[in-house]
């Protein structure tokens, strides 16, 4: 066969249609200068302190880089378990919580199972369903607060084998579900997948980990990407009963938390007061920014995360997004999933002041 005879897009024609149909995740703007203020990825405005970076680099230099990490990162699992007050047998770590959620989606809903989502919710869940071959059952959120339609979600999962994947606090709307709903879901569904990536910014009662002893079919996902400002190093974890955990661990490849991520996570967990202080500051900034947005006559549902969901009154979120970007401020534009709406990450007090001043001018 001559190379020239191979049609250029024959390989593309072999791509599974579910994958072909996906949009690329949050493609950055193709042109223009880098934004001055990056409030579009729910990242922490505060970098890991120099002192911790120094400790991590020194410890990393001591390790043997030629060896694989220890299976299941037992030192890290122990440290996390101690911090969270759960048993190490009920915890596993992964390359960001995204990897772990994908593994669980694939284990419980892959190959033709059904995943129940409450949109607008984390956009990557759709990609996870496509990758694992899960069908989607969508239950739109209700009312000005974009609350989960609890009865409808319960009806979709009760006796159907469908698996609920609930995000609390929810990205991009910020709201939480009650412990009571988690209990009812656990009673109705075979397993409940609960993504708590942003729970460190929420209230104590929003934390679902205390439900683990009571609910044998609850799976909770967390991350160090947000509250610990460690997004650049990919450290997530999942908490569930040991038997369930062992099955989820079969669905992602070993050694996904490397030496560097492990050393950073250990160093961060030794200094929990740093994360606690910054989360408290961001939660109070969130309330300040939300109050100002409401003063500007924008509807903002209550948020317990490090971001706020809003829409300009004229409904043209895309135009406002473009105007903010032209002034160097990047926020997330949600046209594809929630037309008219934007999501802004809460930044440092100075960043929030700048965002609010520019926004007020652009509205
Ligand atoms: N869940 C939600 C709701 C998220 O917003 C994110 C990150 N944007 C993740 C999970 C994944 O986070 P990571 O893989 O960095 O732990």
What does this structure look like?
By secondary structure, the chain is of the alpha/beta class. Helix content is 39%, strand content 13%. It has helices spanning 10-13, 17-20, 50-62, 74-84, 97-109, 124-132, 150-157, 179-188, 242-249, 259-270, 272-295, 317-326, 349-362; strands at 37-39, 91-94, 114-117, 135-138, 163-167, 192-195, 218-223, 236-239, 307-310, 329-333, 342-345. The strands form 2 sheets. The protein has a 7-stranded mixed sheet with strand order 2-8-7-6-5-3-4, with helices on both faces. Helix 3 crosses helix 10. It is globular. The mean pLDDT is 96.
Task: List the keywords.
binds 4'-deoxy-4'-aminopyridoxal-5'-phosphate; 363 residues; 11 strands; alpha/beta; 7-stranded mixed β-sheet
> Assembly state here?
single chain
Strand content: 5-15%
Beta-strand segment tally: 11
Shape from CA axes?
A: globular
Give helix % range.
Answer: 25-40%
Low-pLDDT regions: none
Main β-sheet, spatial strand arrangement: 2-8-7-6-5-3-4
Round the Cα radius of gyration to an integer and report it.
Answer: 21 Å
The total count of helices amounts to: 13
**Cα separation of the termini:** 61 Å
Per-chain topology:
Elements: H1 10-13, H2 17-20, E1 37-39, H3 50-62, H4 74-84, E2 91-94, H5 97-109, E3 114-117, H6 124-132, E4 135-138, H7 150-157, E5 163-167, H8 179-188, E6 192-195, E7 218-223, E8 236-239, H9 242-249, H10 259-270, H11 272-295, E9 307-310, H12 317-326, E10 329-333, E11 342-345, H13 349-362
Helix pairs in contact: 3-10, 4-10, 5-6, 7-8, 11-13
4'-deoxy-4'-aminopyridoxal-5'-phosphate (PMP) binds next to helix 5.
């Amino acid at each position: 066969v001559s190379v020239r005879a191979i049609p250029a897009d024959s390989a593309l024609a072999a791509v599974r249609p579910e994958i072909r149909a996906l949009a690329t995740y949050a493609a950055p703007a193709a042109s223009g200068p880098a934004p001055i203020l990056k409030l579009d990825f729910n990242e922490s405005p505060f970098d890991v302190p120099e002192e911790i970076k120094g400790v991590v680099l020194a410890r990393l230099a001591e390790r043997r880089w030629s060896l694989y990490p220890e299976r299941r990162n037992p030192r890290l699992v122990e440290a996390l378990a101690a911090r969270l007050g759960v048993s190490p047998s009920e915890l596993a770590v992964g390359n960001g919580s995204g990897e772990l959620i994908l593994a669980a989606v694939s284990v419980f809903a892959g190959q033709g199972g059904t995943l129940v989502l409450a949109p607008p919710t984390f956009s990557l869940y759709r990609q996870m369903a496509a990758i694992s071959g899960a069908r989607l059952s969508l239950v739109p959120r209700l009312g000005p607060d974009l609350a989960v339609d609890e009865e409808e979600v319960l009806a979709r999962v009760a006796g159907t084998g469908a698996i609920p994947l609930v995000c609390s606090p929810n990205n991009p709307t910020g709201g939480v579900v009650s412990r009571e709903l988690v209990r009812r879901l656990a009673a109705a569904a075979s397993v409940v997948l609960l993504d708590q990536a942003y729970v460190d910014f929420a209230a104590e009662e929003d934390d679902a980990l205390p439900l683990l002893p009571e609910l044998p079919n609850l799976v909770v996902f967390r991350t160090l990407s947000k509250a610990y400002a460690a997004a650049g190093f990919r450290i997530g974890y999942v908490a569930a009963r040991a038997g369930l955990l062992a099955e989820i661990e079969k669905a992602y490849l070993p050694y996904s938390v490397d030496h560097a991520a492990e050393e950073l996570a250990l160093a961060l967990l030794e200094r929990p007061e740093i994360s606690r202080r910054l989360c408290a500051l961001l939660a109070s900034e969130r309330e300040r920014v939300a109050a100002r947005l409401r003063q500007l006559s924008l509807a903002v549902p209550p948020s317990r995360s490090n971001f706020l969901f809003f829409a300009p009154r004229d409904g043209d979120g895309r135009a406002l997004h473009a105007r903010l970007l032209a002034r160097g401020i990047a926020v997330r534009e949600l046209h594809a999933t929630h037309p008219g709406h934007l999501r802004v990450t809460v930044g440092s007090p100075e960043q929030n002041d700048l965002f609010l001043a520019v926004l007020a001018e652009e509205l």
